[in-house]
Amino acid sequence: MPVLKWGIAAAGRITHDFVTALSTIEQSQHMVVAVADVEEHRARDFAKRHEIPKYYDGFDALSLDAEVDVVYVGTLNPFHYRVVRLMLERSKHVLCEKPLCLSVRQAEELYRVAKERNVFLMEGMWSRCFPSYARLHELLLADCIGEVTHIQVQHGFRADVERILQRSLGGSITLDIGLYALQLGQFVYGCAPIGIKCNAHLNSDGVDVESEFILDYGKNRKLAAFISGLENLDNCAKLLGTKGEIKLNNYWCCTSLTKPGNATESWPLPAAKFEFNHTNSCGLRYEAEEVRKCIEKRLLECPLYTHAQSLELIRIEEEIRRQINVNYDDVLCLDL
Known about the structure:
10 helices, 25% strand, six-stranded parallel β-sheet, eight-stranded mixed β-sheet, 14 strands, alpha/beta, globular
């Protein structure tokens, strides 16, 4: 296919990282042609910084831009549903930053609309697109560490941003970085857990800022994760098997893994024109490339992270929130 033309929904930190990552793809088959934000000056400044030819005041105009093939949605969590649905209904392919939305009901509706409109939709689980995850899959199939019986995850940083700390913005440390631990369990065990136990520390706004959960996958297989927005942690995952263990450094954006015998394999990321806001954000290039390949093949979902897998994790998230008494009932349908 010709160059894939992107529209960017929201001029923020994560969309800055995404556009910067796109620019590192050699002989790029990607082009950003437009950006939109609810504050026109933010879209204008973003367009100028990244040399994007068009900017829009609001998302409706972006959805009507005939030049745009696919839209990357990087708005705040409570607005994902409305923006994604708008783009789908205007027959745009969509890559939406995780979490896709704040309820199973909303997610089911978005996937239904995508299939009805015959367009591609992916929740941005970028972890699955890293070459390290393809290599991990190979090692597990080769029985490198035998049967995996336990996954240990530590993931934490000092969260001082409103989008994580405020319930009205869909805040939740579990929903933000805890989702990566949940997807790792799904990736390794290939099934939904049969049991979930969770406890959390909530802030004064009723948002979890620290959580601990254990998922039971049956057959003596478990995942145990400690997720914190209060302290910096090792941010690694260990897969313990009957024959040894594998360690994933920065497991959610993994560029190196350690096999039995302390043998390390690495996949360095290239330098970019601008600094990134988040760890290993240049890896968003892998996600963008996966989207391009799927659209070239006329797929409606990504085989690395299917609609069914996304819904499975959203159901797990809802159960965790039920257990720790965090809900978004009054913020699910915020207007832009």
